[in-house]
Amino acid sequence: MDFKFSEKEERLREEIRQFARVELAGRNTIAGMEEESNDEDWEFAMSMSRKLAEKGWLTMAWPKDYGGQGASYFEQHVYADEASYWGIPGTSMGVSGIGWVGLSLMLFGSDEHKKKYIPLIASGDPDGVWCTAYSEPNAGSDFANIQTRAVKSGDEYVLNGQKIWTSCAHRARWCWMAVRTDTAVKKKQHGISLMIVDMKSPGIMVKPILNYAGVHIFNEFFLDNVRVPVTNIVGTENRGWYHLMQSLAFERHSMAPQFFGSARRILEYIVKYARETTYNGKILAGDPIIRNKIAERAIELETLKLFGYEITWKMSRGVIPVYEAARNKAYCDFFMQRLATTGTEIIGAYSQIDHASTWPRVMGLITRLYMMFPGLSIAAGTDEVQKNIIGQFKLGLPRAY
Amino acid sequence: MDFELNEQQNMLKTMARDFLSVECNKVKVRDLEKNEINYDPEMWSKMAELGWLGLIFPEQYGGTGADLLDLVILMEEMGRNITPGPFFSTVALCAIPLMRLGNKRQKENYLTSIAEGKSIWSLAVTEQRSGYETSHMNCSADYDGKYFVINGEKMFVPYARVADYFLVVCNTDKDTARNSGLAVFIVKAKSRGVKVEKFSTFAGDGQCRVRFRNVRVSRQDVLGRINGGRKVVDLIMQWGAVLKCAEICGACQAVLDMTNNYAKERIQFDKPIGSLMVIQHQLVDMFTDVEGLQYLVYHAAWLLSQGVKADVQVSMAKAKANQVYQKACIDSVKIHGAIGFTMDHDLGCYVRRIKSAEFMLGDTSLHLEKIAAGLGL
Predict the structure, then answer these.
(1) ipTM for the predicted complex
(2) Model confidence pLDDT, tens digit, residues B284-340
(3) Is the pLDDT of residue B271 over 80?
């Protein structure tokens, strides 16, 4: 047993710290939150993604043949943790390109796909930004229930239907989309295909959906006779479900180190705030209830850290994580809620002030997490869905749904 | 980074699981709960022969020179199976401080005999109005010019009835500020003035009240330094606590396995109850808690084995262990239904040990406070 990072991994961490100190001077961000919501933040995120591309960090996970660095899983882990700690925006260029589209194309894309899209993603430019369209009004947790139809007509598919909760669709150049290519199937998991859709295609209409904090992250998305070349099918037609499972695993595996990084920073700020703030003539850090709650959150943070180490270690040994990714996602959801709630209790009434105005405490970090965590916990699968995966694949229990 | 057990640890784990399943089934566990001495001397000798008692002692003291992580693996198996007896008090609470803080003479005198299974030890620290913080201890040791004379009472001393020696934490200087006037004495259980009264605990795990009345101890029987007793207690609060956590974690794994198996076998409404989402998700939460606890324990033990300061991580493990064990047991009873609430079902053996585990070496609030202090609050 050994819980140390190597010297090479520690050097990378130090380099990222230096980068963040220089490039982020004066900005207070939480990685992955809200960067696509307004033009100014988005432009900054894109400028950072180009810098990350130049450093080679943006696609460090990719093999060298595809312009990546072939970084080890532990180097990726350090990057995810440290970049999130500093809140470096642009690390995933919206949501999907870096995280799973590139890696999935390498696995089951055609040569033409690889040649065309991989360099675009790796450049960090706006033309390499992807959104992912899985959910539909009647296909949420029951994702296999998707109805958006793709009907073959010559060398094209004609797409009709509706997607929803599509993050970043208003910024994306391309869409990674799940569609139904066959309706005459016994199991609804069959007959699904994965395809690349050009967001500039005629017939696509993207409408913003504001979340309850008033932030524009996700969208609804209508397809009216959208024509897509048959060569845009990724992998095998009607086998999309199986490709999607792999793609979702890419999406979930880095969640623990990413959220660990953000949470580590937030907990540090909470401790600092409690030490420096007096209320009713007493220092907050002296309050036994506050001490107790912060200690509980620190245990959860440590647990999340170790879950993150464990999944990275397993992947580095060639294991494809199944229940581990689901466990980490569910644990992040649970912990996010507890951390945000404790944080707001400690900063008190200031937790209701908009982070962009003049009075927020702790730079609005806690407020932002509090307003975002319910949405984040639904994205990439609710914790109920994750628990079904753990129950079935780790505990060997019968399907519960 | 490496989460894997090494070859030696895997062998130890397999050996322990095989040995305990044969030597210590739950019928025996229940018998020993009611038995006067609460342990099986024959099994104790076999554990000595297997090298478990001296597992982490240097070879010169009859040990095998294994490290703390190896002992953690063994403790986990002992907890998984429930292994009644004075192993924890002898090895974790007493032999480790003797090994790390004892002088050469003390190590020579005592460690070999422990490794050979010839002596049982226990720690006397908590009192009616004082816990592991030791700031309000009454038990005192006054120097009369020749001997230290111990007077006072200790509570919840494990296996005191069968112990040959005690480590007794005493106040040596009532005038000094808190915690600076402590010393830890090696006291023969048969010394004149020592009186032992066994508590009737749910676990039947041999915890006792021990009274010391004018018990004379020579200067050479001080472990560590006079007025340096806090250092001994701190060591026990780390190494001992991490081992208690390992034991608890093993028990949690057993409870999880038992409950998961039952949820697959028990049919109601024409299907296994484990296929009901509400039951399944409770099991998943239990699983995640137990796996998280295991990693916290391994990580804290690894830090200690590396000689790194780990008081916060140990406290995290102990606070979590206390919480997870209690929750796992109670949820398990609910999932089992009435059968889980019977004397005949093994689950009760685990339930009866919840409070014994929780209050040994610091309850949840003590450890949460240590974490808060460690964070700089």
Answers:
(1) 0.95
(2) 999 999 999 999 999 999 999 999 999 999 999 999 999 999 999 999 999 999 999
(3) yes
Which tokens in the block code for residue A327? Answer: 């466990």
Report the 10 Å Cβ neighbour count for A20: 17
Q: Are residues B19 and B115 in the same domain?
A: yes
A64 inside 8 A of chain B by CB: no
* CATH number of the domain where residue B148 is located: 2.40.110.10
Calpha distance B17→A54 (Å, rounded): 54
pLDDT range class, residue B177, cuts 50, 70, 90: low
Maximum CA pair distance of chain B? Answer: 79
Are residues B311 and B181 both part of a single domain?
no
Q: What is the pLDDT of residue A183?
A: 93
B322 closest CA partner among B360, B292, B350, B285: B360
Do B353 and B240 share a domain, yes or no? yes
- State residue A355's pLDDT score: 78
Q: Does residue A101 carry a pLDDT above 60? A: yes
A8-17, A100-109, B141-150: which range is least confident on average?
A: A100-109
Kindly state the average pLDDT of the residues B199-215: 97
B290/A320: higher pLDDT: B290
Q: In B, which residues are within 8 Å of A316 by CB distance? A: 1
Pair type for strands B165-171 and B121-124: parallel
Containing domain of residue B176, as a range? 122-227
**Which one of B288, B324, B331 would you mutate to disrupt binding with A, by most A Cβ within 10 Å of its Cβ?**
B288
Give me the pLDDT at residue B179, please.
56
Q: How far is B252 from chain A (nearest CA, A)?
A: 15
The residue of chain B with its CA nearest to that of A384 is B281
- Same domain for B325 and B197? no
The CATH number of the domain holding residue B18 is 1.10.540.10
Question: Is the CB of B1 less than 8 angstroms away from the CB of A390?
Answer: no
Helix ranges (DSSP H) in B154-272: 229-235, 241-265
Q: Do A400 and B275 touch (CB under 8 A)?
A: yes
Nearest to B376 among A275, A290, A390 (CB): A275
Q: pLDDT at position B358, please?
A: 98
Question: Closest Cα of chain B to A397: distance in Å?
Answer: 6
3-state SS of chain A is CECCCCHHHHHHHHHHHHHHHHHCCCCCCCCCCCCCCCHHHHHHHHHHHHHHHHHCCCCCCCCHHHCCCCCCHHHHHHHHHHHHHHCCCCCCCECCHHHHHHHHHHHHCCHHHHHHHHHHHHHCCHHHCEEEECCECCECCCHHHCCCEEEEECCEEEEEEEEECCCCCCCCCEEEEEEECCCCCCCCCCCEEEEEEECCCCCEEEEEEECCCCCEEEEEEEEEEEEEEHHHEECCCCEHHHHHHHHHHHHHHCHHHHHHHHHHHHHHHHHHHHHHCEECCEEHHHCHHHHHHHHHHHHHHHHHHHHHHHHHHHHHCCCCCCHHHHHHHHHHHHHHHHHHHHHHHHHHHHHHCCCCCCCCCHHHHHHHHHHHHHHHHHCCCCHHHHHHHHHHHCCCCCCCC
* Max CA distance (Å), chain A: 77
Q: How many angstroms separate the Cα of B370 from the Cα of each of A227, A268, B42, B126?
A: 63, 17, 40, 18
Cβ contacts below 8 Å, chain A against chain B, sum to 133
The DSSP 8-state label assigned to residue B219 in this structure reads G
pLDDT for A27-67, tens place per residue?
A: 777 776 788 999 999 999 999 999 999 999 999 989 988 88
Query: Do the beta carbons of residue B358 and residue B325 sit within 8 Å?
Result: yes
Whether residue B248 sits in one domain with residue B181: no
